[in-house]
């Protein structure tokens, strides 16, 4: 079932008091999650940390974006396992991409070479592959995993 705008979901900026919740979500969503202090440092650095809450106020997804001059980078996306396969990540990213269009000309990201579902979503959203970082991510087997570099050109309004 795909989500609609009327499904009682609320998008809001994260605050320092949300870092424990962000870390808990990441723990459930990623093999190598960020911890509470990493989210706190991200907020203190000025990154945009977003939370998507359900109608009960539970965080079901999050996203962290770094913006510098006319480029932005998608640093982290997490969706609660019980909320996956409902179009949540696509809705969240589409909304954030639209909000970036007025200030950024390009959105960059790195994604695990093994994360085919995320790559498929990024391509659906218009991202293209730009390169490879060898041995970038830690892997469960103690080795390293490659990262695909992807980018999305954002249309800029004419002055």
List keywords for this structure.
alpha+beta, 7 strands, single chain, 27% helix, 4 helices, 159 residues, disordered N terminus
Account of the protein in words:
The protein has 159 residues and is α+β, with helices and mostly antiparallel strands. It has four helices and seven strands, in the order E-H-H-E-E-E-H-E-H-E-E. It has helices at residues 19-29, 36-45, 88-100, 116-124; strands at 10-13, 48-53, 59-68, 71-79, 106-112, 128-138, 144-153. Strands 1-2-3-4-5-7-6 form a seven-stranded mixed β-sheet, sandwiched between helices. Helix 1 (19-29) packs across helix 2. It is globular. 24% of the residues are buried. The model is unreliable at 1-6 (pLDDT under 50).
Task: Please give a quick description of this structure.
The protein has four helices and seven strands, in the order βααβββαβαββ.
- Number of contiguous helices: 4
Low-confidence spans? 1-6
- Total strand segments: 7
Structural class: alpha+beta
What is the end-to-end distance?
Answer: 40 Å
Q: Rough shape?
A: globular
H and E order: EHHEEEHEHEE
Helix-strand blueprint:
Blueprint: E1 10-13, H1 19-29, H2 36-45, E2 48-53, E3 59-68, E4 71-79, H3 88-100, E5 106-112, H4 116-124, E6 128-138, E7 144-153
Parallel strand pairs: 4-5
Antiparallel strand pairs: 1-2, 2-3, 3-4, 5-7, 6-7
């Amino acid at each position: 079932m795909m989500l609609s705008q009327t499904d009682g979901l609320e998008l809001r900026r994260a605050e320092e008091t949300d870092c424990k919740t962000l870390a808990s979500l990441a723990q459930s969503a990623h093999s190598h999650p960020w911890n509470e202090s990493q989210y706190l440092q991200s907020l203190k650095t000025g990154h945009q940390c977003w939370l998507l809450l359900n109608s009960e106020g539970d965080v079901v997804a999050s996203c962290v974006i770094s913006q510098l001059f006319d480029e932005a980078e998608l640093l982290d996306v997490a969706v609660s396992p019980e909320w996956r396969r409902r179009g949540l990540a696509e809705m969240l990213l589409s909304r954030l991409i639209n909000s970036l269009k007025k200030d950024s000309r390009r959105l960059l990201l790195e994604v695990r070479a093994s994360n085919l579902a995320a790559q498929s979503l990024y391509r659906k959203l218009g991202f293209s592959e730009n390169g490879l970082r060898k041995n970038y991510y830690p892997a469960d087997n103690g080795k390293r995993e490659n990262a695909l570099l992807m980018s999305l050109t954002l249309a800029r309004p004419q002055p």
